[in-house]
Amino acid sequence: MCVKIMVIGAGQMGSGIAQVFAQNGYQVLLNDISTEYLDKSISNITGRLKKLVEKEKMTAETMAEILHHLEPTLDLTRAGEAALVMEAATENMEIKKKIFGKVEPYLAPEAILATNTSSIPITELASCTKRPEKVIGMHFMNPVPVMKLVEIIKALQTSEETYQMVYDITVKLGKVPVVVQDSPGFALNRILIPMINEAVYSVYESVADVKAIDSVMKFGANHPMGPLALADLIGLDTCLAIMEILHEQLGDDKYRPCPLLCSYVRAGWLGVKSGRGFYSYQ
Ligand code: CAA
Fold this sequence. Notes:
Elements: E1 4-8, H1 12-23, E2 27-31, H2 35-54, H3 60-68, E3 70-73, E4 84-87, H4 93-103, E5 112-115, H5 122-127, E6 135-140, E7 149-154, H6 160-172, E8 176-180, H7 188-204, H8 210-220, H9 227-234, H10 236-250, H11 259-266
Parallel strand pairs: 1-2, 1-4, 2-3, 4-5, 5-6, 7-8
Antiparallel strand pairs: 6-7
The structure holds acetoacetyl-coenzyme A.
Acetoacetyl-coenzyme A binds next to helix 2, helix 7 and helix 9.
């Protein structure tokens, strides 16, 4: 019998994580608060798998099998069936704590509770549960099916057994696990998001326009996409939330979010997911 996991949150990251687990033989319960979010997620995953079939990178039978491994559900109590529960909801401490509180009573005693947070302290999340030794950070990158890295973040309370199991699962998914400290932004976002913020400042201070800034980094630093296109892909609200955490917790003014980034988020220009960010996606 294959191992069952639950992914909580069917947004961009949750959908990608669910797809990767299903592609690697796990039975996946995909949970969110509305049927609309779940339908959208399954439709996005189906679209991505269809593209792989069209490119002859996957057979139609394999695609059917993967979709069979994915079960959308509104019922959080079904977390009790899972060996691993992956929280991938909005990047907000209060929302994550609320989800942890709601799901904890249903968890099997041996189940691991992992979070895909990109910057929220795992130690604090773990401390709001009665099983902190089974809480861990498992930070996937966007787009999840493509990107190899998974940052593994141990809370102060995480047991060696939990860590080893999550490390082994990550390898089984074909990803590259890298262990990092439970420090603000962990390692990837400590480096990446200030670079994106600096790119936004460069537009704000008229150093060059959006396309030029992206071209500089693509053709001058060999990045696969420019920092502003990448910000649109990550979500400008997520970039701002991470920048605010770095600023608040590390204190230095060099982490101050660019006012232009704040304005775009206030305007609802969040990037690819809202149809407009530094570029238009209509
Ligand atoms: N889902 C699944 N597959 C996708 C995809 C998606 N959203 N987007 C692209 N792909 C696949 C394509 O199907 C294609 O697959 P094949 O090689 O099998 O044909 C492959 O990726 C390459 O795609 P494209 O040819 O369309 O375009 P590209 O070569 O420009 O690659 C990209 C697109 C993979 C996104 C690349 O530009 C890239 O690596 N960009 C940087 C992404 C990055 O830095 N991500 C980390 C963000 S930080 C983060 O996520 C952490 C956080 O907490 C904020």
